[in-house]
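in:
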């Protein structure tokens, strides 16, 4: 039976021996859909006592994180979402603290955050509050205090929210097990309670998280803690789990549509023409009879009706497409009626693929290639901002409308960062692209990065300028880049250098940002303009083999002549 993530949370907080409680904690367990894509959060902040506004700072840090985290894109990873929010929160605390003209002004606080998503715990930590994990009898402190010891009596925080304009965050992931407990504690608790008490408090069959938190805090006070005391107890009660059969059952709720013929009506869409058919999908032009609008229907191939990985990718393609909003990315439309079959509705485009355009424009003009590259990059940048990798960029998946507008038209291989974090029994493939355009790391079974998409774009640009690929057909390791000028003498050295950098075999040697590639491809970079000595075997391997073959033939003729002339 399918299980979902289930946790229980309890807390206790008290001012202790101080006049004011500057600690603040909070948590959020969202509704099931967000619980799957974003997870549940628990946070504890401890306002720095040397600042009059410590209590305000801790409350703001916790509340802003909870309010903002679930508003971030579901396609983002936990780490990306958390770091963006914490950075923005830190900036506000620091600038507001600087603005206030108080003798002890400042909005400074520690923060420890725990996000439980799927079967993984994600920790983010700044300051000297802490997170402890208890599994059975084992106690593990997962965070370290950011303190600097000045003397035996004095120490100060080296890192805290709002203390500086720059923020360094400790990040950690840990696997989750049913029965795990996490304790989030302010330093007024952790420094005064032994590990044995944690284990003792959590041994009961029915743990009351609120009571455990209260007992731990009271123990800290009894052990001479002079600070505020706050403790949160988070128990992992169940983890999401499915077997392959359960996943298949979920994915096949909508059956594959029957073979479509012209004139047939599918949920209100009348089929007008078949546009394309392959082993993986079919495309049809159709008319939405309710809105009187021409659209394109994409249906899955019946060849994969029993392949859960394929069906999941089909769902993810629609999921990803609906979250992108750009003139350079094809729109995936909402289905206007109740859907009875698995398919997606796409915007109808008039024009041709980049592949067809290249066939009509061999050795394209450099200025035109520069213009097209800028548009392609604008489209791919939309994916990257949402923490998605396209993974199958090629001329067939890039469309040029009659108005000259570039659109990315296929998302079937897209990897979504936030979705990839969700545990599944389905075996997800890393390399789903086309061999000639896919980055080398995919063939080494290594995960792709943004630089992998940059590699594919570099190959496409090279092909637009030359009609060829940047590596010889027999060069399986792609070690010998063939300069574009070998096939097209009009390509300047600096531009050739930009392409060569984009298609480097080692991802670390490629461009890190799409904008850097566009800049170097459109504006001469002195470092790339230097003429490099490239061996002839690398520049023109065919010529080398032709010359060697000719020399061998000549040598054989000479030997034959010498042997025959010396015969008596």
């Amino acid at each position: 039976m399918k299980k979902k993530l289930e946790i229980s949370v309890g807390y206790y907080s008290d001012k202790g021996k101080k006049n004011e409680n500057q600690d603040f904690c909070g948590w959020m367990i969202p509704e099931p859909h967000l619980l799957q894509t974003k997870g549940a959060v628990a946070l504890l902040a401890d306002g720095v006592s040397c600042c009059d506004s410590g209590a305000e700072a801790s409350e703001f840090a916790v509340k802003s994180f909870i309010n903002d985290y679930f508003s971030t894109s579901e396609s983002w990873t936990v780490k990306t979402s958390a770091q963006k929010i914490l950075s923005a929160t830190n900036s506000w605390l620091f600038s507001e603290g600087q603005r206030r003209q108080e003798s002890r002004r400042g909005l400074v606080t520690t923060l420890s955050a725990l996000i439980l998503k799927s079967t993984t715990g994600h920790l983010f930590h700044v300051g000297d509050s802490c997170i402890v994990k208890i599994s059975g009898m084992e106690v593990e402190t997962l965070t370290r205090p950011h303190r600097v010891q000045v003397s035996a009596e004095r120490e100060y925080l080296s890192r805290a929210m709002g203390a500086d304009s720059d923020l360094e965050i400790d990040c950690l992931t840990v696997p989750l097990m049913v029965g795990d407990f996490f304790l989030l504690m302010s330093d007024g608790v952790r420094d005064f309670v032994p590990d044995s008490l944690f284990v003792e408090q959590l041994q009961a069959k029915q743990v009351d998280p609120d009571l455990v938190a209260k007992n731990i805090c009271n123990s800290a006070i009894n052990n001479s803690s002079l600070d505020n005391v706050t403790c949160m107890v988070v128990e992992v009660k169940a983890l999401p789990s499915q077997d392959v059969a359960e996943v298949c059952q979920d994915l096949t709720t909508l059956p594959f549509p029957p073979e479509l013929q012209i004139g047939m009506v599918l949920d209100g869409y009348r089929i007008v023409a078949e546009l394309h058919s392959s082993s993986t999908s079919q495309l049809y032009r159709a008319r939405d009879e309710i809105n009187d609008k021409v659209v394109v229907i994409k249906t899955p191939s019946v060849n994969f009706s029993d392949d859960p990985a394929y069906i999941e990718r089909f769902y993810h393609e629609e999921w990803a497409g609906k979250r992108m909003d750009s003139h350079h990315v094809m729109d995936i439309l909402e289905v206007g009626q109740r859907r009875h079959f698995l398919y997606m509705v796409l915007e109808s485009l008039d024009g041709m693929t980049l592949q067809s355009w290249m066939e009509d424009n061999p050795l394209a003009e450099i200025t035109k290639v520069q213009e097209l590259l800028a548009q392609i990059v604008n489209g791919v940048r939309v994916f990257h901002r949402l923490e998605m990798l396209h993974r199958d960029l090629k001329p067939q998946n890039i469309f040029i409308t009659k108005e000259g507008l570039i659109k990315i038209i296929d998302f079937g291989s897209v990897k979504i960062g936030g979705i990839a974090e969700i545990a599944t029994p389905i075996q997800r493939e890393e390399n789903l692209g086309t061999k000639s355009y896919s980055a080398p790391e995919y063939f080494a079974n290594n995960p792709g990065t943004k630089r992998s998409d940059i590699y594919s774009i570099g190959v496409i640009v090279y092909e637009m300028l030359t009609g060829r690929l940047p590596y010889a057909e027999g060069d399986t390791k792609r070690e010998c880049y063939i300069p574009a000028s070998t096939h097209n003498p009009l390509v300047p050295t600096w531009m050739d250098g930009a392409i060569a950098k984009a298609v480097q075999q080692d991802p670390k040697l490629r461009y890190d940002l799409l904008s850097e590639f566009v800049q170097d491809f459109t504006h001469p970079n002195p470092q790339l303009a230097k003429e490099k000595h490239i061996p002839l075997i690398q520049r023109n391997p065919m010529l080398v083999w032709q010359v060697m073959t000719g020399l061998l033939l000549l040598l054989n003729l000479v030997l034959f002549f010498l042997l025959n002339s010396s015969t008596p």
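note: Residues 541-565 form the longest helix (25 residues).
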